[in-house]
Amino acid sequence: MSKKEWFADWFDTSYYHLLYQNRDEQEAERFIKNLMDFLDLPVESKLLDLACGKGRHAKFLSEFGHHVLGVDLSPNSISHAQNWANERLRFQTHDMREVLENEQFDVVFNLFTSFGYFDHESENKRVCTSIAQMLKPGAKVLIDFMNASKVIRNLVPSELKLLDGISFKISRNYDGKHIYKQIDVIDNGHESHFMERVQALKLSDFQMLLEDKFEIVNTFGSYDLAPFHEENSDRLILLAQLK
Asked: Bridge partners of 191?
């Protein structure tokens, strides 16, 4: 893997986990419950949490009686997630662009804006192709992405955070295609620089990405599964079925 891929570096650092340490567990649990109620999957369905991070969504999915595999590129995230592992819940490091061999799933979940990180749009297609190959016939993928239009309108240009004595100076900008977050870290006098870059994908972009192999069957705009409205929804959540 190219060492120039920013996410392979940033997501595996202790600074990343410190900066995002206060993610809302109750919100994540409520979202998964809402999804499980809506999808009404047979017990012991086989589910994949693609780009699972530290495993919080995968853990909640398994508590509904399903067999869940969580995969992520970050060894540190997977090491943390392994604390949740049990007979229904597995974790492993994996690049989402690659097919997991000898695995077939009833639903693939890609949650919390874990898409659009790559240098080339062709790699988005590669992810979609890999997902399609890992699904059982007629199975579904659920993608939970930011509502890029709302994020761009409300972008906070800069902020400063002090966490455990470590300073995070954060600046944000939009270049017409990507949303950037530049992160300067000062830790005991030592300075480091990291970057986050996410493609500002909108519903029309996902429609084009998915149309070859999937049919979008539902769109939601919040973790409560409210209808999606580009002008004011917090999220863009898509449920698509394999053709």
From this structure: 186
Radius of gyration over every alpha carbon of the chain, rounded to an integer in angstroms: 18
Measured CA to CA, the distance from residue 44 to residue 64 in angstroms comes to 8
Q: Convert the pLDDT of each residue in 4-57 to its tens digit.
A: 688 888 998 999 989 988 777 899 999 999 999 999 999 999 999 999 999 999
- Helix H or strand E encompassing 57: helix 56-62
Domain ranges of the chain: 6-146+202-242, 151-196
Q: Given this model, what pLDDT does residue 9 score? A: 85
d(C-alpha 30, C-alpha 224), whole Å: 8
Q: Which CATH number fits domain 6-146+202-242: 3.10.620.30, 3.40.50.720, 3.40.250.10, 3.40.50.150?
A: 3.40.50.150
Residue 20 neighbours by CB under 8 Å, 6+ apart: none
Q: Which residues contact 50 (CB under 8 A, 6 or more apart)?
A: 71, 96, 108, 109, 110, 114, 131
Residues 220 and 178: their CA atoms lie apart, in Å, by 22
pTM reported for the whole predicted model: 0.94
**Phi, psi of 179, rounded to the nearest 5 degrees:** -100, 125
Closest CA to 108 of 130, 76, 141: 141
Distance CA 15, CA 32 (A): 27
Q: Does the pLDDT of residue 233 top 90, yes or no?
A: yes
